[in-house]
Amino acid sequence: MLKKGCMGRLNKKVVEHKSYQVKDPIVRYNDITKKFGDTVVLNNLNLEVGRGEKLSIIGASGSGKTTIIRMLMTLEKPTSGTIWVDGDYLWHKEVGGKLVPADEKHMRNVRGKIGMVFQQFNLFPHMTILRNVTEAPIRVQGLSREEAEERAVTMLEKVGLAEKVDQYPSQLSGGQQQRVAIARALVMQPKVMLFDEVTSALDPELVGEVLEVIKDLAREGDMTMILITHEMDFARDISDRIVFLDEGRILEQGSPDKILENPDSPRIRQFLSRFIGNSSVSGLATTK
Questions:
Q1: pLDDT in tens, 35-90
Q2: What is the number of structural domains in the chain?
Q3: Domain boundary among 154, 189, 224
Q4: Residues sharing a CB contact under 8 Å with residue 258, sequence separation 6 or more, in sequence order
Q5: CB pairs under 8 A, 24+ apart, for 107-111?
Q6: Under a CB-based contact definition with an 8 Å cutoff, are residues 167 and 196 in contact?
Q7: For residues 194 and 70, what is the distance between their CA atoms, to the nearest angstrom?
Q8: Are 48 and 90 contained in the same domain?
Q9: How far is Cα 131 from Cα 148, in angstroms, rounded to an integer?
Q10: Cα–Cα–Cα angle for 135, 141, 145, rounded to 5 degrees
Q11: The last residue of a domain, from among 130, 162, 189
Q12: Which domain of life is it from (predicted)?
């Protein structure tokens, strides 16, 4: 249940909620449609994310939320439309003022700007925690082991697990493993961090520790974060803006207070009724 004002609010910035014109965009989705066979998952979606913005995307299962961020990781390719990240296009590159198909080198460079934490931890069970975090910077970025370990320890300290460097995933709780997964993404120094329902696989008593780590990252202010979540208290506290997705379209977007307390759409009020007491959302009690 979401309780109004139940946690300290983080600083909000960047997006102008009335116009949704982002002052300094780092991500742009332009006319994105995604189909799986005859099923339209995203329907002509347009969305900008500001540099340093904390954007939460909410909506029912099957609304297209995860597909949005999987596209940024190039795990899914748009059926049509373009995606732009910090000066470069995904799947395309600009040559002589025209967009042409991107080569693998270009794709690797753009992917390097993005980090993602998945629902499942996907840690290597045969590797220590330190090696789980250092493997990618050594293999992908070409760092020396010494450099990678120094960076990894810093990230593990940030998520409160520096003392676990020599342990194995099986020796950690689910919440601790997810915090390692966050450190593993951070160690690559991405410009945009994606979080896909990162607490959905955790026991309820472990959810809080992971959300607190993400909120601490948000308080640092500089990192752009796109989050898929069903934790509405968390979305309220961390977000500059909340986007409600319905059947592959943005139905409504705005400040956390607007979307969670007084949404315009009856569809959103219906969705929120599963999470929020009737008194928390204007008009919800009278919505049929």
A1: 999 999 999 999 999 999 999 999 999 999 999 999 999 999 999 999 999 999 99
A2: 2
A3: 189
A4: 17
A5: 107/74, 110/74, 110/85, 111/73, 111/74
A6: no
A7: 9
A8: yes
A9: 9
A10: 50
A11: 189
A12: Bacteria
Q: Does one domain contain both 64 and 21?
A: yes
Please give the Cα distance from 160 to 164 (Å, whole number): 9
Helix (H) or strand (E) holding 227: strand 224-228
Q: 4: which 2 tokens? A: 């109004």
Closest to 198 (Cα-Cα) out of 271, 259, 120, 130: 120
Note the helical H segments in the chain: 65-72, 104-111, 129-139, 145-158, 174-186, 204-219, 232-238, 256-261, 266-272
Nearest to 219 by CA among 40, 13, 1: 13
Distance CA 6, CA 256 (A): 13
pTM for the full model?
0.88
pLDDT tens digits, one per residue of 187-205: 999 999 999 999 988 898 8
CB atoms within 10 A of CB 203: 10
Question: Quick one: 29 and 94 in the same domain?
Answer: yes
**What whole-number distance in Å separates Cα of residue 32 and Cα of residue 69?**
12
Kindly state the tokens that stand for 154. 């810093």
Please report whether residue 222 resides in a domain: yes
